[in-house]
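Many introductory courses stop at the sequence. We go one step further.
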Amino acid sequence: MKKTFTVNGVKVTREMTEKTDGDYSIQKVQHYIGLNRERVEKKAWIRESDFTSEIQQRTSTDNGRHWGEWKNVQDQVFQQRGNAEKLDGYSSTFFDFSNGRIIRISLSRIFPSGHHKDYENYWGKGVFTFSDHTFLEISGDNGQTWTKQLVRYEDGPAEEPADWLDNAYLKSNFAYLGNRIDIAENGDIVFAVLCSVGKACEILNIDVNTIYPSCPGCSFAAIVMRGKWNQAVGKYDFTSSRPIVIDDRYSSRGLLEPNIIRLKSGKLLLECRGSNAINPNWHTRTTPETPSYRWVALSEDNGETWSDIKPMLFDSGERFYSPSSISHVFRSAKTGKTYWLGNINQEIPSGNDFRNPLNLAEINEDTGMLIKDSLITIDEWEEGQQKGVQLSNFTVTEDRETGDIEIYLSKLGEFENATVFKGNTYKYTLKFLSGRTCGK
């Protein structure tokens, strides 16, 4: 089942890669392992929110033309000690071609009471009981072996202890990973992580009740990490920006899933998901009339200081709505332009709904705003799907041979009268055509 169309200089191809036969979907991701054409493909079964299982992977040495056998890697990413659980995962891989280093960001999420109980505490009681830590992973041998460096913005253990339930470790340097690492020409790196709003206000030395009285332990602020390679120790030396906080009248969950990218103007763009969800257990101050936007800030000094956080706009000055959902930003090797991928709604969404349609737009290289004339729809709700079908939780890979953009997405809620987790898995290929590409 394949669908192809061309719009605004972009050829879009959609094809199903996994057909579900139960009340679940299969999440897929592909990325390059090293500096050449070797790829890894992972898939995991989704039967509940924010938790994956039955994780498998396979590799290809010829850019995905041929693949090895699937191998179960669940025991490499999941550990259990009594009721406690630990789930590990990592982002896409980024390449510093100037010196051959390969880096990626990974996340370790620890559930001291198990994920069912800890998520119940979070959503149902407004009590944050699980713990996230972010690591920068580094490879100097083309992805064969990796070293891990704990991302730290405050005092606490310098690395993950053998006893990952150690209280000092659980209570310090909470950090949820961002989606992207930006690598400068000199090898310096910049990426964003999330800490709690309560911790951010403590670092800023401001009264949290003046900006975020609702549930500061359950909501998040962004911290931008800047790394410089230290050859003597084989790691990066980190400095962190002052936290970037949003008022809880504008986003009831703070800032989420941060993207960062360097524009041609030299400015760094930070782009985040927000939320206007109303949760009585969190005493949220958002209302049904609170608009839901993407949130952005700019830095002109390589991430040391940032402008105030504000809604992402079209370059025409018009505002657009976006649900609380993931987005990605990237620069195309083929066109040289910077793009944003995410969901745009015509009316004010409610929390996570609706995570459709899926859109692509070019980013203005000076202002960081979306060029309205470049906007295209990649996919949208279709007859027979739940109204809230999710064209979200996608991953992005750029083919090194063709420059095509590959999007892997599981359509949660694809079928009416079925669980929301039932959906097929799709691959979208975006081919930027010669001549006029997306945007002017």
